[in-house]
Specification:
Elements (H helix, E strand, L loop, with lengths): L10 E5 L3 H12 L3 E5 L11 E4 L2 E4 L9 H8 L11 E3 L4 E4 L5 E4 L3 H11 L3 H22 L8 H13 L6 H8 L3 H6 L20 H9 L2 E3 L3 H14 L3 E3 L4 E7 L2 E7 L4 E3 L2 E4 L3 H8 L7 H9 L5 E9 L9 E4 L5 H10 L8 E4 L14 E9 L8 H18 L5 H4 E7 L1 H8 L31 E3 L10 H14 L3 H6 L1
Helix pairs in contact: 1-9, 1-16, 4-6, 4-8
């Protein structure tokens, strides 16, 4: 598509340059809008920005690419090929699980490789896994293929889908779904952790998220050479080629409205931006709680905000090592001694337990450019309670850092205490400050059934015309596929610029 931006085009303002905001900006531009993207931070990406420390590079957050076609679509909007700008490589294994007794389970690669690993742990679960995968495909065909990019801002849409969702067992939890097909405690854990990747407790997250099994099997798990930051950079260059204006260090304080319609935004410093429509990639709960007055909102939005149940928080430790660990996989999930009780501590009791489970990311397993020669780059993610707890992170942060280093030194990364370098960490307080995430939650509102589809914050704002929502807190949910699909939803709701100008 040729860049034809003029000052006379209908103007769309996008709040937040996370993946949902970037995707929305590009889709607005493809519809002919003049687009201004306002970002609170100093760089693109939101949770997907990049840290550089002493020659070590770290993707701040998302690292797993499971639906590359969603990125390809954004380039295709303008007649371009993603492959001309990015290199994605498939990973094998997708994840390596390490259990408390030292046993491991390599998940991913070919179906035969996965089946061989299952047979090694519990041969009787081979048939169960195939049945689970088939059930996952049925959920995927409905939950992802049909509904992930469909608006759920009308109650009738939800009512029409309830019989199908009930037939698929979406009222049960991911844990219940997996336990129906698998008997091994280890495999049950390995195949039920997916909700944690989008902020949910496997014991109460709707089994709709069981579709992730088939999503991974259908498209694989990939890594972008240069990291997730390389994807952000490529999309940033695409926006630049298409004439999208990006302004950093610009925190939107409020949405301006006239006669029930969004008419622009006001920054914290008082700067005003007029707009024909506004797209918010801010945390949906923050948008309704802090950027809009209650009287501007529909009752449905106020009720959702009042009853919202939030995802857990995240403690993320970034570090380099002055040696390499060639036997450590790209993605490793280290399971603690406890599973269900640990999750209760995190989600329900909201206490910081002495034990933990960890996700370890070693990008240098695939791309050595993330660290100086002879070194490795890592980050380790530890699920923790959000800020609805009483944890003092200025005290507990350094202590948790030391406990994690000691645990890794004793298991996956021997000698870490002597080789760790250039380390720093982020707590839920940083998520609250940096991303304006309510209660410092890692993934906005939790993926419960009562907070899904119509029950989630709508992509078309509730009570305000010409205001649209993308991101983790709105339909279809968190994770890269979710937030990219949220931009597809608003694409179906927003008219072309020519139609908007004529209205």
């Amino acid at each position: 598509m040729k860049n034809t931006t003029t000052q006379d085009s209908a103007h769309g303002v996008v709040i937040g340059a996370g993946f949902g905001g970037i995707a929305a900006a590009l889709r607005l531009r493809a519809k002919g809008y003049r687009v201004t993207l306002l970002e609170r931070g100093h760089a693109l990406g939101g949770r997907g920005h990049v840290f550089e420390r002493n020659g070590f590079r770290h993707d701040a957050g998302p690292t797993v690419i499971t639906a590359p076609f969603l990125f390809e679509e954004l380039f295709a909007l303008f007649g371009e090929r993603m492959a001309d700008h990015l290199t994605l490589v498939p990973l094998t294994p997708w994840y390596r699980f390490r259990f408390a007794d030292g046993d491991t389970f390599d998940y991913g690669g070919t179906l035969e490789q996965t089946m061989a690993e299952i047979a090694r742990i519990e041969p009787r679960d081979c048939a169960g896994y195939l049945a689970l995968l088939e059930h996952s495909k049925r959920i995927f065909d409905v939950g992802f293929t049909e509904l992930s990019a469909q608006p759920f801002d009308r109650l009738m849409t939800m009512l029409q889908q309830i019989p199908r969702l009930v037939k698929l067992g979406s009222y049960q939890s991911v844990w219940a779904l997996v336990s129906h097909y698998l008997s091994s405690p280890k495999l049950r854990q390995a195949f039920s952790i997916q909700p944690l990747l989008v902020g949910g407790n496997p014991f109460n997250t709707t089994s709709i998220y069981g579709l992730i099994h088939f999503l991974e099997r259908a498209y694989g798990v990939h890594f972008a050479m240069g990291g997730t930051g390389a994807i952000v950079a490529a999309l940033g260059q695409l926006m630049q080629r298409q004439g999208i204006t990006v302004q950093f260090n610009s925190t939107v304080a409020s949405i301006r409205t006239e006669h029930g319609c969004a008419s622009g935004v006001e920054l914290e410093n008082g700067t005003l931006f007029d707009a024909d429509l506004v797209v918010s990639n801010a945390d949906a709960a923050y948008l309704y709680g802090s950027m809009l007055k209650p009287r501007q909102q529909a009752l449905s939005a106020r009720l959702k905000l009042a009853a919202a149940h939030y995802s857990m928080g995240l403690f993320v430790l970034y570090f380099g090592t002055t040696r390499t660990y060639p036997d450590v996989a790209h993605h490793t999930i280290s399971m603690g001694v406890r599973y269900k009780e640990l999750l209760k501590d995190i989600f329900d009791r909201k206490v910081l337990a002495d034990d933990f489970s960890l996700y370890l990311h070693r990008p240098t397993a695939t791309d050595p450019s993330f660290a100086p020669p002879g070194c490795d780059s890592f980050y380790v993610l530890c699920p923790v309670p959000n800020l609805q707890s009483s944890i003092n992170w200025s005290e507990q942060g350094p202590l948790l850092r030391d406990r994690i280093v000691d645990a890794l030194d004793a298991t996956l990364l021997p000698g870490l205490r002597q080789s760790i370098t250039a380390d720093f960490f982020k707590t839920p307080e940083d998520f609250q400050h940096d991303y304006l995430s309510v209660h410092g939650s890692g993934f906005s509102v939790a993926p419960l059934f009562r907070q899904s589809a119509w029950f989630r914050f709508h992509n078309r704002a509730e009570g305000i015309k010409n205001l649209y929502l993308t991101g983790a807190g709105t339909h279809p949910g968190a994770g890269l596929p979710g937030v990219l699909c949220s931009a597809k939803v608003i694409d179906t709701l927003i008219p072309s610029a020519a139609t908007k100008e004529a209205a």
